Predict the structure.
Amino acid sequence: MTARTFPTGTIIGYPRIGRRRELKRAVEAFWAGRIDAGELESVAADLRAATRERLAGLGLGREDSSIPESFSFYDQVLDAAIAVGAVPPRFAHLVDADGRVDLAGLFTVARGEGEHAPLEMTKWFDSNYHYLVPEISPTTAFSLHAERIVAGFLEAREAGYLTRPVIVGPITFLALAKPADGAPEGFRPLDRLDDLVPVYAGLFEQLAEAGAEWVQLDEPALVSESLDEPRARLVAAVGGVYEALGALDARPSIFVAAPYGSLDEALPALAATPVEAIGLDLVRGSLPDAFDPATAESLAAKTLVAGVVDGHNIWRGDLADAFARVEAVRSLAGSVAVSTSTSLLHVPHDVADEPQLDPRLASWLAFADQKVAQVTVLARGLAEGRAAVEADLDAASAALRDRVQAPGVRIPRVRDRLAALEDADFSRTAYEERVAAQASLDLPELPTTTIGSFPQTAEIRRARAGLLSGAVSAEGYRAQMREEIERVIRLQERIGLDVLVHGEPERNDMVQYFAELLDGFAVTVNGWVQSYGSRCTRPSILWGDVSRPEPMTVEWAAYAQSLTEKSVKGMLTGPVTILAWSFVRDDQPLADTARQVALALRDEIGDLESAGIRIIQVDEPALRELLPLKLADQAAYLDWSVGSFRLATAGAHPATQIHTHLCYSEFGVVIDAIRDLDADVTSIEAARSRMEVVDDLAASGFDHGIGPGVYDIHSPRVPSVDEVTALLERAVGGIPATRLWVNPDCGLKTRGYEETVSSLENLVAATNEVRASAVREPVSA
């Protein structure tokens, strides 16, 4: 094949939901039947065109493959599954005679339909993005259906752009998959790698025929030490896969991107293959100073794509240091290019869309568009020499110096309180003593509850918008929220739940709500980031030392408790999750920042107790999410993350029942850390994975209260009584009923009331059936 030059500057991927969430709105309109597939396709095409134009305007080339084609209607792993024919048999009716799945079918696989459960969902490496987990069996019939991938490239070509198609690489695709139900014991999806590679070869041939010069395969599995597959097996797979793909006569040049950490021993393995370019995350990862002679010789014939612009955070960063790292890479490779460390999927579009931010703070920031501009600056420096970009490097350094000096970044009283902490501040009384003290809550066996939020109706959103615009007075808003809280309390009483929540109508987001009430944070208006599918969040910006000026949740919790004789949970977001779902300052250790947040929450718990709240939930759904991908880094992370939760909760009275909640992650690797949180009750995602976590809990000897979810709230399906009963019976088969709680997987904010009420009614009915059952499997405590 003809040798091709890799662009000097590129990015790994770009936000795809739209600057004003246009794709989200169009997809949800399609789901609701307000627009048809053609209209949705038109919105998507406009977004792709706008993205290409924007990236070219920021300095990426129109005809040098520097613009990636990384669009997705829902999820890139789902797209790969559809492209290689890995549709679960329960969705076979969605596949047409040519093996294709249309848009409606794609969304059905993602969201489920009737009795057909959707694909499981979990976190994408150590990010807050969720991907859909492919299901692979020994008989999965891989076949190529890459029409959308090829069409995206041709659409760009017709508009005058030579772009770079992006797809999840075959090793990562199978490493992230799970064995399908019924697969034989011991089967692993990676066993099917030899069957999958020819499908990728067919894709390469189609792209070559269409005129693609480069293709990007994302292989983040090659940096991770935290997957179910042994790392040695992943690295060993590299040679066979990329030798086979590299040997094709007609193919684009291959760029393998490996974000989220160092490739380590996978880099020599890749270097030994015919791939032309290798992407390195040099923000989370690093390179050795030298290589063995064979690897050095191989790298001399390749392009190393240096990911020195942080794609995972929003700080402007040290461009002078980034340029120095790029120049250091130059000595190791045949050629060097500059890129972002990861896809820009993880950051908002444009700082210029946030005029309400303090200008001084805004000068420290770089969203996606600013990061693209940084890439082009560094690429120009590579091509023309440092002197050509000296002014840009100096401006970034000046912004860093200004951050250090700004008021609020370092507050002595906050730091003095941290310095005065002692070991006793991190521990409660023994769990057995707390169980005895909490008996006065008088809860039944298998108590039922929800995770916290109830559906946020259009009326609630209008009231919040009215408050922000001034159309609704603070007192009028407060009255509307109280009315909603009372309605939710009465609804839960009617359904028959045992422990109630106030529904959180006053909260725009489980992190932003607290960010708006804590010092040291700023919030955005248009800083949307995709979480999964059509769901987006606006991560807050944690820029300075954190403290709590006044109580944040007490008024709402106390009012809800005044309406009922049943216990109402106070609802807080934990310190790790507040950090994970914010853009956090990068000028001090995360552990210090987490403890600052924990002390603010500790004060809030004390005020909730004083107001008569006996059950308090401190949510930590992101505990697993931040777990480092490298084993050597995990112990330190678990120490400070668990410690920050304990610091927040250890001041609670023994009679106060502390709950926590975790969702949508693989929990087996952090089961000891979950125990070490020392929460009285832990609720956890389990419905979509059909109670797989119960085996981990039973094997670990977990001995605190546990609520494995029985209702998947990320799907519009209403689980039947029989379905919930089956899940509960499996849970009771592995966990003593005296410690078991019954709850949904997660909060109900994103659901509608009709499905929510039906689902909760079925949850209560199933619980009553299991309570009444006379026969239970014996379980050791």
About this structure: Confidence is low (pLDDT under 50) at residues 774-781.
